[in-house]
Automatic annotation (TrEMBL):
Residues of the Cation efflux protein cytoplasmic domain: 217-294
Protein name per the record: Cation diffusion facilitator family transporter
InterPro entries in alphabetical order: Cation_efflux, Cation_efflux_CTD, Cation_efflux_CTD_sf, Cation_efflux_TM, Cation_efflux_TMD_sf, CDF_Transporter
Bilayer topology annotation: Multi-pass membrane protein
Organism the protein comes from: Martelella mangrovi
Signal sequence range: none
Length: 306
């Protein structure tokens, strides 16, 4: 299978998973609202409010992934990959908004707590929703990491946060029911909101890093240097290696030093060999190699061949 076909299959799989997140989010939202309707629990209401955000975020993620998969054009010559980071930032903001909504609902209940009714049925319904969310979050995070889709990873982490929220709600209601103290219901909701707020902040920070052209990981850069050492025979070395990540794409450029008398064709052959090896090590990579004669003053760290 060629690299182009593999990337195309990956983009298609990403779009499919993102699409199916929308109806699943709607299903989970319906189940959680049913649990709140049955019990009247503010903790279950807070869980439902976060699921409303999940629905909005899943739609935004699907739109971003479809847009990011568009090929490069005249106005976006390096592609549309960063649209996924924008979606991830929006999702992080949505998580923060959900946390603030939960704070608002739960804070008032602290002073006037009311013991929920039909807790057993409500918890059973909520657990079903949590199981659906847990399985789908695992699928999205694993697929997003494999396909290098920051928007999908963000969506998976958001849904995983929803699972944590649900677990906290179940524990809170269980304690309230066992002790007879209704105040545990809003207190657990406040703790859940704090956790959600922290998760949203981390997601925003990570996504902004992608928008700011964060470099590839240390392991990825080590793989690039290894590919250079093994495939740059005939050159004198490489320096000024720079990398950046944009969604599923990786952009790599460096200077290749050759003997000043080397024919252009021979230098080009080395570049082709290096490009093939690096793309094998870093799928989705786009390279820019600047060939320069020996004697030029090097910049940055040099990767020696011998």
């Amino acid at each position: 299978m060629t690299g182009g076909h593999a990337q195309g299959d990956g983009a298609s799989r990403t779009r499919t998973l993102a699409f199916w997140t929308i109806p699943l989010s709607l299903l989970v939202l319906s189940i959680k609202l049913l649990a709140w309707y049955v019990t009247g629990s503010v903790a279950l209401l807070s869980d439902g409010l976060e699921s409303i955000v999940n629905v909005v975020a899943s739609i935004a993620t699907f739109v971003a992934i479809v847009y990011a998969s568009k090929p490069a054009d005249h106005d976006h010559q390096f592609g549309h990959h960063k649209a996924e980071y924008i979606s991830a930032v929006v999702e992080g903001v949505a998580i923060v908004v959900a946390a603030l909504l939960i704070f608002r609902e739960a804070f008032g209940e602290v002073f006037h707590p009311v013991m929920p009714t039909d807790v057993g049925l409500g918890l059973a319904v909520n657990i079903v929703a949590s199981l659906i969310n847990g399985v789908w979050a695992y699928v999205l995070i694993r697929a997003g990491q494999s396909l290098r889709s920051p928007a999908m990873v963000a969506d998976g982490k958001h849904i995983r946060t929803d699972v944590v929220t649900s677990v906290g709600v179940v524990l809170g209601l269980g304690v309230a029911l066992a002790t007879g103290y209704a105040i545990f219901d809003p207190l657990i909701a406040l703790l859940v909101a704090a956790h959600i707020l922290y998760t949203g902040w981390r997601l925003i920070a990570e996504s902004v890093g992608g928008l700011m052209d964060v470099a590839l990981t240390n392991d990825e850069e080590d793989a690039i240097r290894q590919a250079i050492r093994e495939n740059a025979e005939g050159s004198l070395g490489v320096h000024d290696l720079k990398t950046r990540r944009a969604g599923s794409a990786a952009f790599i450029d460096f200077h290749l030093v050759v003997h000043e008398t080397m024919p252009v064709g021979d230098a080009h052959d080395i570049c082709d060999r290096l490009e093939a090896a690096i793309k094998k090590a870093i799928p989705g990579a786009s390279l820019a190699i600047h060939v320069e004669p020996e004697g030029e003053k090097p910049h940055g760290v040099r990767v020696r061949i011998n």
